[in-house]
Automatic annotation (TrEMBL):
<dbReference type="Pfam" id="PF07969">
    <property type="entry name" value="Amidohydro_3"/>
</dbReference>
<feature type="domain" description="Amidohydrolase 3">
    <location>
        <begin position="86"/>
        <end position="161"/>
    </location>
</feature>
<dbReference type="GO" id="GO:0016810">
    <property type="term" value="F:hydrolase activity, acting on carbon-nitrogen (but not peptide) bonds"/>
</dbReference>
<dbReference type="InterPro" id="IPR011059">
    <property type="entry name" value="Metal-dep_hydrolase_composite"/>
</dbReference>
<feature type="region of interest" description="Disordered">
    <location>
        <begin position="143"/>
        <end position="166"/>
    </location>
</feature>
<protein>
    <submittedName>
        <fullName>Amidohydrolase YtcJ</fullName>
    </submittedName>
</protein>
<feature type="compositionally biased region" description="Polar residues">
    <location>
        <begin position="149"/>
        <end position="166"/>
    </location>
</feature>
<dbReference type="InterPro" id="IPR013108">
    <property type="entry name" value="Amidohydro_3"/>
</dbReference>
Length: 166
């Protein structure tokens, strides 16, 4: 091979490598474009969909707090898994609809806000009977509840109650 032929071969090799190598590397990239990818995919689950046409599924893909799709683990992983997608394998556990509280008493919310909070931690402050008494006294003062309006300084017993209504 002559010097000129060698240089032409070298140029050809460099040019070929600069075209072929990026193409081959891009074909190795896994996943979908980030714009189309889910943030999280729950896989290998027993998903209860509450949808008569598809009562159950194996996976749920989620992006920006919204469900993108429900289906098989294989399909959703192929269609929605990007490089930054978090995969949560539920190992056959059940996933139910209602990412917000599925059992709520929201109709009582305004009424409950005016009640004394005598619940235990972490919901309320009460850890003992003296705590209950303190919370009730504070609530009585805060709400300006007059004595005799459902409150008493004496313990209510069946005998005391009968005397007060007679």
């Amino acid at each position: 091979m002559s010097f000129v032929q060698g240089r032409r071969f070298a140029r050809f090799a460099v040019l070929s490598a600069s075209i072929v190598l990026p193409l081959s590397l891009s074909s190795c990239r896994t996943g979908v474009p980030d714009a189309d990818a889910a943030q999280i995919i729950f896989t290998n689950a027993d998903v209860v969909t509450m949808n008569e046409s598809q009562p159950s599924a194996q996976a749920v893909s989620v992006k920006a707090g919204k469900i993108l799709a429900v289906g098989s683990t294989e399909d959703l992983t192929r269609k929605y898994k990007g490089q930054a997608t978090q995969i949560v394998d539920l190992h056959g556990k059940t996933l139910l609809p209602g990412f917000i509280d599925p059992h709520s008493h929201f109709m009582n919310a305004l009424q409950i806000s005016a009640w004394a909070n005598v619940t235990a931690p972490p919901v309320g402050p009460v850890k003992s009977i003296p705590d209950i008494i303190a919370v009730l006294k504070e609530h009585q003062a805060k709400q300006k509840i007059a004595k005799g309006n459902g409150s008493s300084d004496t313990a209510t017993t069946a005998t005391n109650w009968r005397k007060s209504v007679n």
